[in-house]
Amino acid sequence: MNGYLIPANSKKSMLIFNLFRPFDLIMFGTGLTVTLIMLMIFDLNSLWITILVLAPACVTGFLVMPVPNYHNIFTILQNVIVFFSNRQKYVWKGWCFSNEKENSQK
């Protein structure tokens, strides 16, 4: 048998801690940094101010949260945006299709 066996987790070895890309960690670190700076600046007497101050860390933490079959939510959102923003009607030109316009121009 001349087949190759590729381990199921071969792509995960390219990720940091088998979960994160460098961009994911930079994005999450930026969200945490912004949250820590806002915690030092703002007075947290109101519930709404506290929610707004904690929002950057919560949003970026949600985006880099690991999920099954994808390495995080951010990857799912990128794939959904690419799918819906690309052409949805696919024209098949297989081996048995002859295009009259292409043949007549030659």
Features:
106 residues; mainly alpha; single chain; 4 helices
Percent in strands: under 5%
Mean pLDDT: 80
Element string (H = helix, E = strand)? HHHH
In whole angstroms, how far apart are the ends?
46 Å
How many strands?
Answer: 0
Please state the CA-atom Rg, rounded to the nearest Å: 24 Å
Compile the SSE list and pairings.
Elements: H1 22-41, H2 47-63, H3 73-85, H4 100-105
Helix pairs in contact: 1-2
What does this structure look like?
With 106 residues, the chain is mostly helical. It contains 4 helices and no strands. α1 runs antiparallel to α2. The longest helix has 20 residues, at 22-41. The chain is elongated. The mean pLDDT is 80.
Summarize the structure.
This protein is an all-alpha fold and 106 residues long.
